[in-house]
Design brief:
alpha/beta, six-stranded mixed β-sheet, 6 helices, 16 strands, Nitrilase/N-carbamoyl-D-aminoacid amidohydrolase, about 25% helix, single chain
Length: about 280
């Protein structure tokens, strides 16, 4: 699969961001991408006030524009995330579109970014958003894909559950900051890849030092061996990478983490389905 990560600049007007994302999707498709991924909150600044101001329902312009962009470019599209409004609630939601422009999945961020790092970042995403409650996987001709958003990736049970349900790659549109990014960005994506023996992808906005929330950037793709296959810098960049899911089964045959689990002694309960993995 030819993968393109658009580490795009995010401005303060959704219309500009949608147009910029659409142009990037077309450019990635022209370069041969099968799947294009956008960053977390690619339509507006990462602030609670912007989430409230710019939230739209799933039937609104954000989803419609991205559906049209995917169909015109003929690519699979993971459209970062947007502030989604449903009645009185707001969600941090990632939409996924097929090459025909059909909405095939939507992930609502399950773990909200409520942190207070001593001497560093403070943010309360729960001041605005309601947490989602669904594990999100979708099927493509290349293989099954797992999807989460930013802070979700910190919870190993979620990644393991997606792996046990057949995910070959986990995507996380994310906006780590300059406190958590240098400490944990590479470590987190590499470790989730190694733990679950699959590809992991983190796609962030480009860094804007003058913005209200400064992204760490450094979008990356990790292999099931824990190697960083490609990595962006801090500026806007189209990062392209080829992935082969056959590498997952090869690594799992050499180091049988998944098959060697002692399910006679422990398991992972999926409370939505009641299944113990």
């Amino acid at each position: 699969m030819q993968l393109a990560l658009f580490q795009m600049r995010v401005k303060d007007q959704p219309a500009e961001n949608l147009a910029h994302a659409t142009a990037g999707i077309a450019r990635a498709a022209a370069a041969g991408a099968d799947m294009v991924v956008l960053p977390e909150m690619f339509v507006c600044p990462y602030t609670n006030s912007a989430f409230l101001q710019f939230a739209q329902p799933r039937t609104g312009r954000y989803a419609q524009t991205m559906a049209e962009a995917a169909a015109k470019a003929g690519v699979w599209l993971i459209a970062g995330s947007v502030p989604e409004q449903e009645e009185t609630r707001l969600y941090n939601t990632s939409y996924v579109f097929s090459p025909s422009g059909k909405l095939i999945a939507a992930h609502r961020k399950m773990h909200l970014f409520d942190i207070a790092v001593q001497g560093g970042q403070h943010f309360q995403e729960s001041d605005t958003f309601t947490p989602g409650d669904q594990v999100t996987l979708f099927d493509t001709p290349f293989g099954r894909i797992g999807l989460c958003i930013c802070f979700d990736m910190r919870f190993p049970e979620l990644s393991l559950l997606m792996a046990l349900q057949g995910a070959q790659m986990i995507f996380a549109p994310a906006a780590f900051n300059r406190t958590t990014g240098p400490a944990h960005w590479d470590l987190l994506f590499r470790q989730r890849a190694v733990d679950n023996q699959l590809f992991t992808v983190g796609i962030a906005p480009a860094r804007d030092p003058s913005g209200p929330y400064v992204s760490y950037a450094h979008s990356l793709v990790c292999s099931p061996w824990g190697e960083v296959l490609c990595r962006a810098g801090t500026e806007e960049e189209m990062l392209c990478c080829t992935v082969d899911f056959a590498q997952n089964s090869s690594i799992r045959a050499q180091l049988p983490f998944i098959s060697a689990r002692r399910t006679d002694l422990y398991g992972l309960l999926d409370k939505k389905s009641g299944t113990v993995w």
